Amino acid sequence: MYINFWYAMAETADVPSDKPHRVTFLKQNFVLFRDEDGNAHCLHDVCSHRGGALSKGKMNGSHVECPYHGWQFDGNGDCKYIPSLGKDNQKIPARTKVDSYPVHEEHGVIWAFLGDLPEDERPPLLRPHNNPNGIDYSGDEWRWVTQTWPLKSNYERNVENGIDPAHNEFVHERHGFSGARLDTYKVQEYDLTDHDWGAGFMLTFQAPPSTHETAHAGETSRTEEGDLEAGAGHSGPNNVWTYIHMTTTNFMHQYLYETPIDDYNTKAFNVSMSNFLPEDVADDDDIRDMNGAIAEDDVVVLEEIQPPLTPDNMTSEVMMPADKMIVSYRKMLKQWDAKGWRIDSAEIDRHKHNKIFAIPSPRRRTEKGWVFDPVPLIAGE
Ligand code: FES
Ligand SMILES: [Fe+2]
After folding, report:
1. Biased-composition ranges for Basic and acidic residues (predicted)?
2. Is residue 47 lining ligand 1, measured as CB closer than 6 Å?
């Protein structure tokens, strides 16, 4: 788990206009809420007074109000009102501020940048309208559907599954693969395309007909053996794109956000773009069911992988040429380790009974005086 990346935090519908919403990621609690203009905000969910959970309080105009003694905080994390001081004596110490994180909301998802980098140094947020492959989704034929699912597995293991070209044949029987074509099957050699914060590949698979009616939404399923162009890549440690081109014109593009709850649990957010499923063929729930069923195939495998976390060396597993994408991902993780961005999870646990940390927010670069220490990090190089 790293600081200084964008993380999917909630679906738009999770955060109403009149109530704060709690989420727990990277072993930290966050509160999401909306100001009176409807803009979403994300703060560390621990009141700087005496530790109340802001998410368990209520909205007061554009401020979230702590349930314990009524302190009010705005979307920047500034304390705006302390009832015990009295209405005419609001001399609010600067040290009352709490961490506030940059937010982006689109396609039914609210993301937050969990780190302290200034804007021009941040890794980009992978999203359909800002993808490393230059795909333009502005045409009317594209529709999108968002959904989430929980996983009892480490987010890095999940990302490796998402970018793994060799698992389909054995995991996704509903795609028509069954591991039974060993006489003709192999993973073709592939090239990686690097970009600043990730890498990816596209590959042509010889694909059998689909065997399951929900595989590609019923009547649009592939009925005969044929070439299937597919590829995947990652952006940062936690975000994945997967493109499946069923035919030369029918595309399904998934943007998958693996947000770690802790080392062993993940919440996956999926924004699925498709250009061949008009409303009269599949409604949003049909597409969610299809994606959910495919994810379920992966979950069965992922929850049993040992060790639960990715090994920190390349010698305790045996990599094959088809694993080139995984090796590239692991190398990039090392680069982010070297920057000193990996959270020291064991150190958080060591203090769990009497000390609260916060993911440092961008304001910490320019302002001193914070109540909570920044989350412990594993030293870089
Ligand atoms: S703990 Fe939040 S107002 Fe006192
Ligand atoms: Fe899969």
Report:
1. 213-225
2. yes
Cβ–Cβ < 8 Å for 179, 172: no
* pLDDT tens digits, one per residue of 231-242: 999 999 999 999
Domain 5-121: which CATH class?
Answer: mainly beta
Sheet holding 5-11, edge to edge: 5-11, 109-114, 103-106
- Every domain of the chain and the residues it spans: 5-121, 143-334
Q: Please indicate whether residue 69, judged by its CB atom, sits closer than 6 Å to ligand 1.
A: yes
Q: Which ligand lies nearest to the CA atom of residue 293 in the structure?
A: 2
Q: φ, ψ for residue 345 (rounded to 5)?
A: -65, -40
Say which CATH class 143-334 falls into: alpha beta
Give me ligand 2 centre to Cα 301, in Å.
Answer: 9
Establish whether residue 82 lines the binding site of ligand 1, counting it when its CB lies within 6 angstroms of any ligand atom: no
Which ipTM was obtained for this model?
0.97
